[in-house]
Amino acid sequence: MPPIDCEDQELLEGFLAETTELLEKLDDDLVALEKSSDDAELLNRIFRSIHTVKGASSFLGFDLLVKVTHKTEDVLNRLRKGELHVTPEFMDIILEATDLVKLLVSDIKAGDIQEREIDGTIAKLLPLLSEAPPAQTAEGSSSPSAEVAKVVIPASATENDQVVLPVEAAASEPSPNQEVVPAPPPKASGDMVSKKVPPPPKPAEPKGEDLSDNTTVRVDVKRLDDLMNQVGELVLERNRMIQINQDLQQGEPDRLDFNEEFGKLTKRMSFVTSELQMQVLKMRMLPVDKVFKKFPRIVRSMARDLGKEVDLQIFGEETELDRSVVDEIGDPLIHLIRNAMDHGLETPDVRTAAGKPRCGTLVLSAVHEGNQIIISIKDDGNGIDTDRVGRKAVEKGLVTEEQLAAMSQRELFDLIFLPGFSTKDKASDLSGRGVGMDVVKTNIKKLNGLIEIKSEKGQGSEFILRLPLTLAIIQSLLVDVEGEVYSIPLSSVLESLRVDQRQFHLIGNREILKLRDMVLPLIRLESIFGVKRRNEQDNFCYVVVVGTAEKRMGLVVSRLVGQQEVAIKSLGKYLANIPGIAGSTILGDGRVALIIDPVGLVDGGDTGGR
Amino acid sequence: MSNALVPVKADELHGELIQLVSFNLDKEEYGVEVLKVREIIRMPIVTRVPNTPHYVEGVINLRGKVIPIISMRKKFGLMDAESDKQTRIIVMEVDGELKGFIVDAVSEVIRISSSEIQPSPAVVASGIDQECIAGVINQAERLLVLLDLEKMFSRDEKNAFGSL
């Protein structure tokens, strides 16, 4: 076999990019095929994908890959001719083969081609091709792969640096489970079954699912052209600015003229930059489909493992959001889906007994709302049993009886996010360690997002995630606290009002404000941030009402400065974790203003007041 | 074995030149390795950051990057002084991050031979952490305290601060 030398590097990269894309689509198509097995167009597409991968890998000399894809192609060909029919067992085998292909591709990608056990999977494929001589597999043992192993391709630097949680392995790489559990293929003869080897230890790494590469971007040429136009305009405006500056230096124009010219320039400049900002933002946008498309596969394999029937409906997968957000929401969503599948939906028998359709529904949807994206995971299972949740939390010592008694419905729901909380008595491969929901909460918090739970016992539950579209630039409300300027993310500001301080009431140690029919706890920013009082005490001040989900809180400030779009700057690791501060930004005059973290303030707000 | 190595090492280092940036703090003169220093700037407007240790003056905008500013005087437990025309911020990379340190004045870049560095005496005045003193340079007309800022923020201090 021809070794891969450096000249082929470009070819190899092309192959990897194409194969990765095909394989991603393939998963989706295969799951869809199971539902509509007579869709000839779909079947042809699947066939073509596998065929393309086979062709390209044989050209590049990846023997193992060729062998697996070739057999898979043969089986699919029989399916296409109508000689075979789609059954769940059949799909298990095909999916297992696809997993193997992914694993092999990810080996090639990592530049670390290893000897993989492929006979087990091929042995399962063979019975589906009754004409194929079984001898062919025996000869196809992995001797050539030893040669392959010597070839080392320089791995691209940044991939694989993602931290994968240990619990992740169970869901993202379902093949090891499948390999042991499912019944032998229908046509398998006795010695075929005995040939089945235990799953190779390697596939336990969740590598195969992480094929997609996030280091390169594909951008629509039109968007690039637009960007070039914008930059062109920016250059023109810069020239204009240089001209104006020159004129001013030479003292030629009169003041009035300069003012007018400069005013015009400022307007055009701000127009061009905001256009440019939009363009770049758009380029960074990815459809949420990138995350969603791996779920049908996960849901299918989980449903089979759990013995449940699930209909997964996905809406709004074309909704776009920033790359940084897309990268971060994968994990929390998997946990939420797993949660819904394992705890939410009941087994078919229980469902029928409760008078519900046998097949449970899981709805995954994404939609834009203002400058937020809302992702919801809704199931029609048995909902959250708050009594049970409360009891478990007390049992595990996470809360005390007294605390429990004082809790609202909302707070009871929040208990499931506590680290270490689980309603399961024993940990299984899927759940029970009390990690998942904690991961969800921390990840969403990291993204400045909110989680809302709606649940009705017996009717199902819905988890609603509200996420910012981008992490880089936010709309914010600038406020003045005794001369210091702070910025509050507008997404969490509900309203702001001017209040006479004499309307404040003191309950216990806390100042509160009666706002319409609501009792609003107040936090004086000057006291929790230790700002020195500069001005005379004024009776009037402003209250900015911030909220996270159902919690509301009023921040008392001296003055509102205005609304501004600000770019978030990190404070660095030395100043990370300051309570109540989320980051910083640079104002128009070059000064730094701190961005307030309302979630942190609301959660830790008990120390506020006077 | 380690004893035997010491004289050899000292001999080797004899000719090695080190460049230091020297600065003043109260009445003493200090030095830091020039390679650690990114730039030296005048006092800009510093934004106070609440709930931080007293020696963290706040943050500044360094050409679009936000970096923390630490008062050397406060850190070393010296009397606080108003900033004047001489006051400078030395921007250095410490712990893999840019940080600014306020000093009374920056005087010069000096070259010394590494053999001139003596271990610091057991007791040093004015409450400076022993930890971050890498040595003392005793030249004819002056005494220079060599600082190692990586050690300035001892481990427990970092942790305590992180969990504030």
Q: Measure the end-to-end span of chain A.
A: 78 Å
Secondary-structure arrangement, i.e. CATH architecture of chain B: Beta Barrel
In CATH, what is the class of the largest domain in chain A? Mainly Alpha
The percentage helix of chain B is 10-25%
CATH class of chain B: Mainly Beta
Mean pLDDT of chain B: 78
Question: Tell me, what's the shape of chain A?
Answer: flat
Order the strands across the largest sheet of chain A as they lie in space.
Answer: 10-14-15-13-12-11
Counted beta strands of chain B = 11
Strand order of the largest sheet of chain B: 8-1-2-11-10-9
How many independent structural domains of chain B? 1
What characterizes the major β-sheet of chain B?
6 strands, mixed
The residue ranges of chain A in which pLDDT falls below 50 over 5 or more consecutive positions are 131-211, 605-610
Largest interface: A-B, 25 and 25 residues
Describe this structure in words.
The complex is a heterodimer of chains A (610) and B (164). Chain A is an alpha+beta fold and 610 residues long. Chain A has 22 helices and 18 strands. A six-stranded mixed β-sheet of chain A has the order 10-14-15-13-12-11. In chain A, strands 2-4-5-7-6 form a five-stranded mixed β-sheet. In chain B, the strands form two sheets. A six-stranded mixed β-sheet of chain B has the order 8-1-2-11-10-9, with no helix packed on it. A five-stranded mixed β-sheet of chain B has the order 3-6-7-5-4. Chain B contains three helices and eleven strands, in the order H-E-E-E-E-E-H-E-E-E-E-E-E-H. Chain B is mostly beta strands and 164 residues long. Chain B has helices at residues 2-13, 72-75, 155-162, and strands spanning 17-25, 28-33, 37-42, 56-62, 65-71, 88-94, 97-103, 105-113, 117-118, 133-139, 142-147. Chain B is globular. In chain B, strand 1 and strand 2 (28-33) form a beta hairpin. Helix content of chain B is 15%, strand content 45%. Chain B has a single domain, classed as CheA-289, Domain 4 (OB fold (Dihydrolipoamide Acetyltransferase, E2P), Beta Barrel). Chain A binds chain B through residues 484, 528-531, 569-581, 584, 586, 590-594, and chain B through 45, 47-52, 56, 58-61, 64-68, 95, 97-99, 153, 162-164.
